[in-house]
Amino acid sequence: MTETGHVTLAIDETGIGTISFFHPSHNSLPGALLNQLAQTILRAGQDGQVKVIVLQSEGERTFCAGASFDELISIQSKAQGLEFFSGFAKVINACRTCGKIIVGRVQGKAIGGGVGVAAATDYCLATQQASVKLSEIAVGIGPFVVGPAVERKIGLSAFSQLALDATEFRSAAWAKEKGLYAEVYESVAQMDAAVQAFASRLASYSPEALAALKQVFWEGTQHWDKLLIERAGISGTLVLSDFTRNFIQGFKSK
């Protein structure tokens, strides 16, 4: 375990490939970890032993706190901003193009980019503690990169509510009602049993049929390779604003 976090891939005998990520700061995602996560997803998608992917984070309280504030405050140019936010684009596009069905496991709060990661999975299970918040507009950057993935799952109306009500969490039940989560469980143990059972069923299906179905699920998103990088440029410019820098400094000083 290091201060920069880690990403691991474990493949069991049934073909379930479990990708786990961790960062000591509430599973936030600095640039290096974003790139590692995207590469691991693509690698699992190309691995013939992997029939289905489970995407999860470690720990109990927070699934993913989104962008790393320490890294945001260190960005000094538009190019650096573009590079950082392109990391979220890479993760979402890796989920979209990897060719394997991805089952999300969300054990706790998902914030900002964490909501985008959950939305980029093909089927997502969660606990009652897995409330969601898109806090980006309050920070001064807006949920531009993750927006297409979130809107695809929950629709424009629910996405706009989540994006504009940036300081309040919406419950896991709300997220299920809007389609982000397929099911919500009272405990982590119940969720884990459901994740294992569902992934095992998927692993027993035809890989070719699952791959074809994944293409159907993501039909109409082929332009995201360009779109999400363009969106990363918007966030990469806004992160340099006095508003954003003052917000982050104030948050870190609390």
Q: Could you explain the architecture of this structure?
A:
The protein has helices spanning 31-46, 69-74, 78-97, 113-119, 136-139, 147-164, 172-178, 188-203, 207-217, 224-238, 242-252, and strands spanning 6-11, 16-22, 52-57, 62-64, 102-106, 109-111, 123-127, 132-133, 183-185. It has 254 residues and is an alpha/beta fold. The protein has a 6-stranded mixed β-sheet, sandwiched between helices. It has a 3-stranded parallel β-sheet with strand order 4-6-8. The two termini are 27 Å apart.
Which fold name fills CATH's third level, the topology? 2-enoyl-CoA Hydratase, Chain A, domain 1
- Series of H and E elements: EEHEEHHEEHEEHHHEHHHH
Radius of gyration: 17 Å
What is the helix fraction of residues, given as a range?
40-55%
| Largest beta-sheet details | 6 strands, mixed
> At CATH's second level, what is the architecture?
Alpha-Beta Complex
Name of the level-1 CATH class? Alpha Beta
What characteristic shape results from the CA principal axes?
A: globular
Number of individual domains: 1
> Stretches where pLDDT falls below 50 for ≥5 residues?
none
End-to-end separation in angstroms reads 27 Å
| Total number of strands | 9
CATH superfamily: 2-enoyl-CoA Hydratase, Chain A, domain 1
With helices defined by DSSP (H or I, 4 residues minimum), what is the helix count?
11
Structural class: alpha/beta
**Overall mean confidence score, pLDDT:** 95
Q: What strand line-up does the widest sheet have?
A: 1-2-3-5-7-9
Beta-strand share of residues: 15-25%
